Predict the 3D structure of the following.
Amino acid sequence: MSDSHSHDHDDWPYPHPKQPDTEDSEFTDYMAMAAAVGNLLIEKNIISRDDLRGMIESIDSKSPADGAKAVARAWVDPEFKSRLLEDVVAAAGELGLDAGTIPIRAVENTPEVHNVIVCTLCSCYPRMLLGLPPDWYKSRAYRSRVVREPREVLREFGTEISNDVEVRVHDSTADLRYMVIPMRPERTEDLNEEELAALVNRDSMIGVTTAGK
Amino acid sequence: MARGFEMSAQFSIGERVHVRRAYPPGHVRTPHFIRGKTGVVANIAGEFANPEELAYGRDGLPKLALYHVNFRQTDLWPGYTGQPSDTTVVAIYENWLDADEGSEP
């Protein structure tokens, strides 16, 4: 926010920062290319403008609530958990969730192992179950540091992992996506599935936090 | 999802494998920090078209076995400050792996 404006109409001599408009950020080659390809596909009647809008709306409609539903069911139903660990896309389908076509691997946190997910090469993420990734997940700092010093990064998220627990980092570099099944918090025996799902937030399914915080 | 792929996969679960130390140009899905390192096959994820070929509009066939390889953090990073039990698991296509023959990790 380097831009600013001054108040000529009063005696206050100091400018204050102005929120930049959309046009103030850089229009990159990639943005131009995406717009051009979209327009070409529409012009050539390969897809319609409605198809494109529908796809964007579909992506926008995905949220971590879907993943949380699957985790809560896994907590209450060990057989479902086995199926989720075997094949996330099929198990999510049982709950009426469309997890897409890219295989997703669920990794389970236990008293012995704490799992955390990253894509060091780009920003691979289980979008169909968790929605769009947070900006920090795509940042160079997270992508480089969480493999190099995972315990420090987790600590910055408020997550202290005991020294007798293995920290296992999963790098989503290839044809699979990952989601973490966090540990069920203690003293939640009386909660129903919906209440349990409310304890499962996005960060806990990435593995940078635990559930129920 | 991995059923049926084990037969065509060259490496098996528990086997020590060495990641090629190579730096070819192109769309390569093997991160630099594991090239030249040794790990253990934790899981066979299936068979997938070669992304290095797909990136250039080719069919990527024949498909390649894809392995989850588990690396000890202390083998990846000199001066690692975490615990000796800490690991990183990376999905690696078979064309990047050699059988480990006691080479340095």
In short: The radius of gyration of chain B is 14 Å. The CA atoms of residues 23 and 97 of chain B lie 14 Å apart. DSSP finds two helices and five strands in chain B. The interface with chain A takes residues 1, 29-31, 33, 45-46, 48, 51, 66, 70, 73, 76-77, 81-83, 85-93 of chain B (CB under 8 Å).
